[in-house]
């Protein structure tokens, strides 16, 4: 009889907790949807500051403004965390032409991030199309040497989540130019990594390899890539040449900062739950979805806690990471100092897939049994808000360095709807106008709800 | 032993079916995402035809083009279904002013659909704000008589799905003007039914009541509504007046058509699964999300079946319904003729909530046990495509008349992400550019997958 009583009192207390959680999550969503401030904060970041590539004056401006903004909310701690960041500049706008005999056809290109410049007067060479890095090897140095390699691997539309398409097609941008250089290529033109057919070159980082010549590399719009490809199919080499000129340069590393706000835990002040995004952006637009939305949602998590009177047991930090796009130095520094300061990190959530309607979270490398428990305990609570897709998957580049430092930390990726992200990603279209207020706010509320659940219940 | 064998062979055959279903659904999504045609079909409808309000020349043009388009796909049957539709015209663009002493402040308004015109020189009267229809009754005829009633009920942002916000705030548009007339109001100005703060009046139908005077009614943009409200708060009546002029008229009913394509069932040709949207639109824009996406997705279901070589057992129809927006005559006619022709309707799916990322389907009025079975049998199959939210809920205005006619027909609403729909709904922003190709195609594939499952397995 005693056993039965115990069991039923456990059930009751579980029900009580669930009901209490359910009330708190409803409060969080109401606050974010009715009194939300992330949308107007994002407007300021996009419209009054704009692009903020690491090392730029605008990046510094964004750091200073973010610090002030956090100060205005009266969190328990607000501070900067210094880190040195790469400082790459695009310089004057690029030029690109397909040269077909005497005909010069202008095409929209943009230097890939971290690329070297072309010679001052530009670079002209025969151009050869490949669909993959693998294809380079089959062609070999005899074919590639002295040419510009045109990486035209297609986006695979069959993936349901576009992140998978990006990962697959993206290899040619990350690694293609360095691979082409190994075979003696003099330049690389890379099809923009996007499911969309449009006239925008999508920039993004490329990675050189030590000991291999750095060749200039640019993204070309998908429509121009299709045009170039069809011209190459119709005419045989060496009739089609390509010319491009880009003016980028790598400056010495610059001093910059992560911006951090904290609500200190009432019970376990040295245990941390981090929620973050990255403050830096590429230079072509306003970095609205990438990743102004992520930082402003993270800030909103803390604001919503304060507004609803929720005092977390553990310390909760909103971190605006610096330099995700071309270096990851902010993320590295955050983990390094966490170790140095003997902090204990129990979880981190990153929002860096755009501020679209939230669908759930992915949990990085946790045991299947743990993911099952998370679903069992929390899925029902998140279902009314349609953010209950709790899956295995990646987290985020800025929080990943925590993985090595804190073996038991649970790293989590915020997962919004993915369909529109890569249409605008790293292009001039990544602007405030393409962010929907409610979508952004729902995401912030979803993040706050998960932080709340972790804070209350941990993962055990 | 025999019993055990039987059980395990049942399990095997179930697994076999699931595997076969899973392969077919993958094929459907691949076809829609790689070779999809709904996006380009929608482009034509929006850009080459545009708005197509019932009874208009453009509506007729859209009927003729749709019929030709369906013919080009070589379905088993393509035909028109005649129906008489209301013919309302907006006439010249409306004018609206807040009159504050000698100051005339122009505000964006648009006549509500089916509204009567103002007198030729416009209508000027004192204006009184109410937040709900209920508030009218508390004020009574002594206060309302001779005035313009300003319905300024807010959109409730707390709803997660915006359809609920629309239903709640929308009452003042559907029923408000007729209610105000009962108390002697001379006109009605209604806050646009949208969660967005912008400068667009959102049109949409209003419903007059027999025996009550028809008063002119217009939508006002949410920003202008806020301005008017704050002016009314600051100054006491009768200082603030309102002037508006609208030029709409009701013409005699016009002949129009539903457009229908059919793949005839191989086993049960007289059993029907309908998938549809509505071809007509409001007159202010291109009717892209409302409901060009719905008709083009419905057509795509049939195209995908043909392209993948799938021959349904039951007859599957894509129906482009006419006159959803201001009459529902096409839906009525479809059900009426289905009865007359002794058809048997087993299911109908309507897409009329925009062409956004699909999240699932809602099932109208089915028993809880049936919904449970649907989830048990099909949820897992739809989960990889993130369209597995299978809930109780509404279906669609065009297929609802089937409910009375066919008691066992299952009526289903296609449920895309709802966040952006009411931002552009019934405004000049409902244009092709606001439709995302992949979102649209994923929706078409989701609809085709559900039709396939119903065709294969029914609901038992």
UniProtKB/TrEMBL annotation, chains A, B:
<keyword id="KW-0964">Secreted</keyword>
<dbReference type="GO" id="GO:0004180">
    <property type="term" value="F:carboxypeptidase activity"/>
</dbReference>
<dbReference type="InterPro" id="IPR039866">
    <property type="entry name" value="CPQ"/>
</dbReference>
<dbReference type="GO" id="GO:0046872">
    <property type="term" value="F:metal ion binding"/>
</dbReference>
<dbReference type="Pfam" id="PF04389">
    <property type="entry name" value="Peptidase_M28"/>
</dbReference>
<keyword id="KW-0865">Zymogen</keyword>
<keyword id="KW-0732">Signal</keyword>
<protein>
    <recommendedName>
        <fullName>Carboxypeptidase Q</fullName>
    </recommendedName>
</protein>
<keyword id="KW-0479">Metal-binding</keyword>
<keyword id="KW-0862">Zinc</keyword>
<dbReference type="GO" id="GO:0006508">
    <property type="term" value="P:proteolysis"/>
</dbReference>
<dbReference type="InterPro" id="IPR007484">
    <property type="entry name" value="Peptidase_M28"/>
</dbReference>
<keyword id="KW-0256">Endoplasmic reticulum</keyword>
<keyword id="KW-0482">Metalloprotease</keyword>
<dbReference type="GO" id="GO:0005764">
    <property type="term" value="C:lysosome"/>
</dbReference>
<dbReference type="GO" id="GO:0070573">
    <property type="term" value="F:metallodipeptidase activity"/>
</dbReference>
<keyword id="KW-0378">Hydrolase</keyword>
<keyword id="KW-0645">Protease</keyword>
<keyword id="KW-0333">Golgi apparatus</keyword>
<feature type="signal peptide">
    <location>
        <begin position="1"/>
        <end position="19"/>
    </location>
</feature>
<keyword id="KW-0458">Lysosome</keyword>
<feature type="domain" description="Peptidase M28">
    <location>
        <begin position="258"/>
        <end position="449"/>
    </location>
</feature>
<comment type="subunit">
    <text>Homodimer. The monomeric form is inactive while the homodimer is active.</text>
</comment>
<keyword id="KW-0121">Carboxypeptidase</keyword>
<keyword id="KW-0325">Glycoprotein</keyword>
<dbReference type="GO" id="GO:0005576">
    <property type="term" value="C:extracellular region"/>
</dbReference>
